[in-house]
């Protein structure tokens, strides 16, 4: 099919438990029939730890309970410093599940079924979050 990689959110519960325990949430799988495909052929598999749900605390949709990511210090809703720390903690914990990450990148999804009721607010918060993290955590993360 020409795939180089496959990202997925659900697998057998026992296999997921073992992969988390062994810290093997990402791996290369080689197809059967090396005589047809060669031994260099492989597909990168990457198991998402949060299916495709927002990271906890970062559901910016109006249907969610989490606050917007506000970077303007003149607003009473300014929360960028604490929210950036929370995101840094989340990414640090997530990175522990992928110690041998082959791509040098982590895949973090922001969404869920029936979300983006107000896409403008969602994207505004995510844009603010990305900009703030790149300005303040660039030595550790680049979003």
- What's the average pLDDT? 86
| Global outline | elongated
Widest β-sheet, arrangement of strands: 1-3-2
Helical content (DSSP H or I, runs of 4+)? 25-40%
CATH superfamily heading: Glycoside hydrolase 38, N terminal domain
Second rung of CATH, namely the architecture: Alpha-Beta Barrel
Count of DSSP strands: 3
Biggest pleated-sheet summary: 3 strands, mixed
The top-level CATH class is Alpha Beta
Low-confidence blocks of residues: none
Number of helices: 4
Radius of gyration: 18 Å
The secondary-structure class comes to: alpha+beta
Distance between the termini: 30 Å
Order of helices and strands: EHEHEHH
Q: Bin the strand percentage.
A: 5-15%
Can you tell me the number of structural domains?
1
CATH topology: 7-stranded beta/alpha barrel
Description:
With 143 residues, the chain is an alpha+beta fold. Helix content is 34%, strand content 9%. It contains four helices and three strands; from the N terminus they run E-H-E-H-E-H-H. A three-stranded mixed sheet has the order 1-3-2, with no helix packed on it. It is elongated.
For the structure shown, list the relevant keywords.
143 residues, alpha+beta, 7-stranded beta/alpha barrel
How would you summarize the topology of this molecule?
Layout: E1 5-8, H1 13-22, E2 26-29, H2 34-37, E3 43-47, H3 80-96, H4 119-136
């Amino acid at each position: 099919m020409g795939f180089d990689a496959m990202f997925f959110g659900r697998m057998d519960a026992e296999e997921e438990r073992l992969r988390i325990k062994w810290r093997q949430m990402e791996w290369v799988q080689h197809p059967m029939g090396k005589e047809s495909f060669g031994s260099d052929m492989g597909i990168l598999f990457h198991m998402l730890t949060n299916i495709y749900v927002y990271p906890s605390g970062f559901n910016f949709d109006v249907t969610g309970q989490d606050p917007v990511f506000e970077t303007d210090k003149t607003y009473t809703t300014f929360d960028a410093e604490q929210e950036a720390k929370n995101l840094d903690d989340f990414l640090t914990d997530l990175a522990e599940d992928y110690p041998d990450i082959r791509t040098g990148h982590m895949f973090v999804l922001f969404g869920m079924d029936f979300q983006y009721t107000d896409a403008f607010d969602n994207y505004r918060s995510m844009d603010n979050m990305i900009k703030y993290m790149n300005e303040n955590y660039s030595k550790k993360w680049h979003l």
